[in-house]
What does this fold into?
Amino acid sequence: MNYFTIGLAGHIDHGKTTLTGALTGIDTDRLKEEKERNISIEPGFAPFRLSEDMTVSIIDVPGHERFIRQMIAGVAGIDLVIPVVAADEGVMPQTREHLEILSLLGIQRSIIAITKADLVDEEMLQLVQEDILDYISGSGFEGSEIHFVDAKSGRGLEGLKKSIASFLSSLPSRNKAGAFRLPIDQVFTLQGHGTIVRGTIFDGEIRDGEKVTLLPDHFEARVRQIQTHNEKVDRAFAGQRVAINLAGTNKHELSRGQVMVNSNHYAVTSTIDLAFTQSLTMSHELKQRSLVTVHNGTAEVRGTIVFFDRNVLNSGEREELYCQIRLHDPLAAKKGDHVIVRRPTPVETIGGGSILNVAGEKYQFGHDTIAMFEQMQRGTPVERLDQLLDQELLLSKDQVMQNIGLDEEAYVQLSKESQLVLFDDYVTSVNVFNRVDQAIRIIVEDIHKQFPMRKGMPKAELIQEVRKTYPVKLIEETIDVNVEKGELKSTGPFLSTDSFEPYLPGSWKTRMTQVIEELRKQGLNVSPIDMLIEKESIPDSLKGEFKQYVVTENIAVSLTDELYVHENSFKKAITELKSRTGESFTLQEAKDILNVSRKYLVPILEKLDDSGYTIRKDRNRFWRT
It folds into this structure.
C-alpha cells in the first residue's frame, strides 16, 4: 500500500472546497465561522479513494490572503498540488502567491484544475488556459496537465481522477524506513478520550503503544490509539493523514507547530543556515538583521535574518543567495527541510529555501563563508549521496534517485563510485552501517559485562534501544548481516558477540560453584535454592541472575520457584523411572522408585509432563514414545 497527500491551493472562492467535496463526498469546511462566512479559515482534510493499493488524503488549504500562514501549514508534506483557477476569473493574486510559496517549498508536481467550467463559454475557457500557461511558463509548474472541471455538473471529474491516480502511481512512496516525524497541525480534546493531535506523517512509521516525544519542548507521551480518516489502525506510515490519541500529556502542553518523533534523530535548533531563493512577490527591500517569520512544516517561528554578502535584499528580482536565520524560539528541523520566510510587517512572503545546516554558527561576513555554503549545497553526486544518507540513514533506491536527481544509468554508476550497503530495495552507506554496527556491539558488550551470566541481550530489547537513533529496518538488517557472517551469535531470543559464553562473575565464582556442588550432592531431596544462595552470602542483586544461569546453561532444573535439582539428578531420575516401569506408572510407583516425599515427587512428575517426557491421564502417567 502506498500513501499520498494532495493539496488543493488557489485564490479564495475559486472552488477548492466544492471540488474537494465533489471528489470525496466530504465538506471540509467544519468550523462554524467557515460555514457562516462561506470561506475556508483552517486547512480541511478528506480521504480520497482512488485504487485498492493507494490511500490518498486531500488537503483543502485556505485561499484568503489573511490565512496564508494556515495555507503554508496545510501544504507541508504534500506529494502533489492541484492549483485551482476559476474559469470566470482566471489567475488571481492568491493564485500567484500560492504557486510562489509551493515553488519555494520545492513542491512543483502539479495538475491544474480550471473550475466552474460550465459558467463560461469555450472561448473564455481557452483564454483562461492561455493565461495559466503564460504564467507558469519557465517555472517548475510548466508542463502540468490542465483539466476543465465543474463540481456541480460533474464535468471533467473522472478525467481528473484518472490523471491523479496515474500521476501518483508513478511516484516513489515516502521514506517509511526513516525516523518517524509528524508535524502537528491540530490539537483538540474529545470527551472520554483525552488529547488528540492530527497531522500528515512526513517520514517513517508509528505504532500503537509507542513512546513519543513532542519537539521542541521535549514533552513525552505514549500513543494510545491511531486513526486515519476515522478508521482505527495499529500503525501508520509516511504520507498518511492521522489522528493520534496521546496518553501522558494534555492539550495545554501541545500546539500546532510541534513535531512528534520517536527517536533523537531530529535536531532542535536556534540557528539555521539556508540556501535562499527570493520571492518574485516581494515588494519591499529587506535590510540586514531584519525581523522575519520562518515557516517549517506546521511550525512558525520569529527570527533575525543575517546576510553574508550584502546589507540589503532588493525587491523585484529572483535572487538566489545564502543566509542565516537566528531564531527567537527553538525549532525542530533537519538538513534539507524546505522553509518559507515572510516579513511580519508589511506582511508578505520574501522567499524560501532549504536548510543547509541545523547547527549554524556565527560566521564572518564575506567570500569565505559563501564558499563554505556553496560546498554544503553542491558537492559531487557522491558527496551529496553521502550527506543524504548521513542525514536520512536509510533510503530506497527510488528515493536516492529522486533526491540526487539521477536516472537508472547514473544511479548504477554512482553505486560503483560510492561505498554503499544494499538491503533488499534499500540503501545505506558503509559509514552509516559501521556506525549502527558499532552501536550494537557497544550495547551487547556492555550487557555481557553487566550481566555475564546471561546468554546475551534479547533482540527485541536491543532494537528498542538502538532505534532511538537509527531506523528499525536498518538495525534489523545490520543484525542479520552480522549473524550471517558469524560476528554475532543468535541463541533463541538472545544475541551475543561471536565468542561470548555465559560465565560466573569472578568475585563470586567460588561461592556460586559451591551452591552448584551442593545441589549435585543433595540429589532430589534438595534444600530451597534461596537458602543455599544465602548460606554462601551471595547478594540478592545476583540471586535472580544466578538462578537463571543454572537453568539456561542446563546445570540445574527448576521444579518450582523454590526447588532446583541438579541436571544429573533429574536425568538419573528419568532413567530409573523408565527402566523400572512399563508404558505407564502411578504416583505411588514413582514414589517407591525415587524414594522422595510428595514435596519433591509432585514437582518432579509435573516437570516430566511439562518437558514432554510423559502424559498424565487420570491417575497414570504414560511415557511419550
In short: Residues 31-42, 63-67 have pLDDT under 50 and may be disordered. The chain has five domains: 2-169, 181-261, 267-374, 388-503, 508-623.
